[in-house]
Amino acid sequence: MSKSKSSFICQACGAVYSRWQGRCDACGDWNTIVEELADSGVGAGPKSAKAGGRPVELMPLSGEIESAARIETGIVELDRVTGGGFVMGSAVLVGGDPGIGKSTLLLQAAAALASRGKRVVYVSGEEAASQIRLRAQRLGLGDRDVSLASETNVEIILATLERGPTPHLVIIDSIQTLWTDRVESAPGTVTQVRTSAQALTRFAKKSGAAVVLVGHVTKDGQIAGPRVVEHMVDAVLYFEGDTSHTFRILRGVKNRYGATDEIGVFEMTTLGLQEVSNPSALFLDQRDEGAAGSAVFAGMEGTRPLLVEIQALVAPSPLGTPRRAVVGWDSARLSMVLAVLETRCGVRIGANDIYLNVAGGLKVNEPAADLAVAAALISSLTNSPLPTDAVYFGEISLAGGVRPVVHSSLRLREAQKLGFASVVTGRLGPGDKTSGLEVSEFSSLAELVGRIAARGRKVAVED
Ligand code: TYD
Ligand code: MG
């Protein structure tokens, strides 16, 4: 193979091509394919694999189990998402938009562990040590025993980490700034990011330190995103939120040592990230009580119930093609709910402009939100405010039925805890009933529509 052989790699997903093209066939992104030298790095395969083909001892499946040693930070919302603390010898990727608060979160985690007597090394390729110190001081963490380094070369970082006692936790902020001598591509390219992440993951396994890699999610795909290293790390956490709102959600999307569907909720304040232990109260804090078009959805995030307000605005459209704007929910799902309302319930809603918003900037993915969305839409259409003490959940089928959803009892309990008096849902199982809440069960959406519309002044339902 000639030394100058190059390949073309998509910087967003890592797909490899033999020639340049404008659009990546694998992920569909435009202008993400960049020429990189193929004779080094990941594309060339591990050269050392051939050396010393020493066999290993095969082991029976039914052996002794060592439970993974974990280091708890004491930040409950973070420990919940990692499954009880960072696992020693594991690599964790923390991804998120630039400016969302990844460095702040990890600096706080580092400080928390340091005050529990753990050795923590924070390596930043983005900020100078004095900038990190300044941030720590502002957060009131200036006196914690965390070792800092400002470095981007992987070999130097590894040499530094291997000197002296092995740290318990190493934070690398961020993988996009790293570069290794072993490959010739520019920093930030897929080959560099992958090779660097591989070297650090290997360090984690070999040394027993927990390694946290920070990765920026990039929308334009010009810099290799965290997606290209997701498969090599043991856990992937995404830090999300809307920068115009103060709350942030840490979401586990992969975890070899725990459940993946957990979330941690934080609020960004002038004193850094504060844990939010009762997120429902936060999301319902500024609810427009008594306004038409507002429904409270009793949702679930992982194993946690979470109440959020769904707001709908249905207004006559001056346009030939009415406008649909959805924030925090799936627009295809909205179209489905609208189609069911039109066809199965006889509601003339399609010719209106429709705006749907999940309050607080939260993203809701559950089909269980269908019923709350439908209730909010009908409430707005008929100008009939929903009872302020009611919560809604249930999946709507294409036939117009309301299907029961999982974790009904947890949702009911959360609603009761927050002072709600009634719940509107599909048919519940016998074990799901909670005393104290008035439960209205609907097996068809049309029944619910009729009830909401009957309360309104302007009834837009056909006979
Ligand atoms: P940062 O952790 O630097 O984000 P990332 O590492 O994900 O790029 O967070 C940057 C933002 O957080 C910045 O806009 C300022 C804000 N912030 C606060 O509001 N309060 C604070 O105490 C700190 C440290 C940051
Ligand atoms: Mg940062």
Distance between the termini: 76 Å
Please name the fourth-level CATH homologous superfamily of the largest domain.
P-loop containing nucleotide triphosphate hydrolases
- Give the strand line-up of the largest sheet: 8-7-9-10-6-11-12-13-14
Q: Architecture of the largest domain, CATH level 2?
A: 3-Layer(aba) Sandwich
Summary?
This protein is of the alpha/beta class. Helix content is about 25%, strand content about 25%. The chain has 3 domains: about 35 residues; about 210 residues, 3-Layer(aba) Sandwich (Rossmann fold); about 180 residues, Ribosomal Protein S5, domain 2, CATH 3.30.230.10.
SSE order and pairing:
Elements: E1 6-10, E2 16-17, E3 33-37, E4 70-71, H1 76-82, E5 86-87, E6 91-96, H2 102-114, E7 120-124, H3 129-138, E8 146-150, H4 154-162, E9 169-173, H5 190-207, E10 210-216, E11 235-241, E12 247-255, E13 263-269, E14 272-275, H6 279-284, E15 294-301, E16 304-316, E17 324-327, H7 331-345, E18 352-358, H8 370-381, E19 390-392, E20 395-396, E21 402-403, H9 408-417, E22 422-425, E23 438-441, H10 445-455
Parallel strand pairs: 6-10, 6-11, 7-8, 7-9, 9-10, 15-19, 17-18, 19-22, 22-23
Antiparallel strand pairs: 1-2, 1-3, 4-5, 11-12, 12-13, 13-14, 15-16, 16-18, 20-21
The structure holds thymidine-5'-diphosphate and magnesium ion (MG).
Magnesium ion binds at residues 102-103, 126, 173.
Q: Describe it for me?
A:
With 463 residues, the protein is α/β, with parallel strands linked by helices. It has helices at 76-82, 102-114, 129-138, 154-162, 190-207, 279-284, 331-345, 370-381, 408-417, 445-455; strands at residues 6-10, 16-17, 33-37, 70-71, 86-87, 91-96, 120-124, 146-150, 169-173, 210-216, 235-241, 247-255, 263-269, 272-275, 294-301, 304-316, 324-327, 352-358, 390-392, 395-396, 402-403, 422-425, 438-441. The strands form five sheets. Strands 8-7-9-10-6-11-12-13-14 form a nine-stranded mixed beta sheet. A seven-stranded mixed beta sheet has the order 17-18-16-15-19-22-23. A three-stranded antiparallel beta sheet has the order 2-1-3, with no helix packed on it. Helix 8 packs parallel to helix 10 (445-455). It has three domains: 6-39; 70-277, 3-Layer(aba) Sandwich (Rossmann fold), CATH 3.40.50; 282-462, Ribosomal Protein S5, domain 2. Strand 12 (247-255) and strand 13 form a beta hairpin. It is built from ten helices and 23 strands. The N and C termini lie far apart (76 Å). 24% of the residues lie in helices and 25% in strands. The chain is globular, with a radius of gyration of 26 Å. The structure holds thymidine-5'-diphosphate and magnesium ion (MG). Thymidine-5'-diphosphate (TYD) binds next to helix 2 and helix 3.
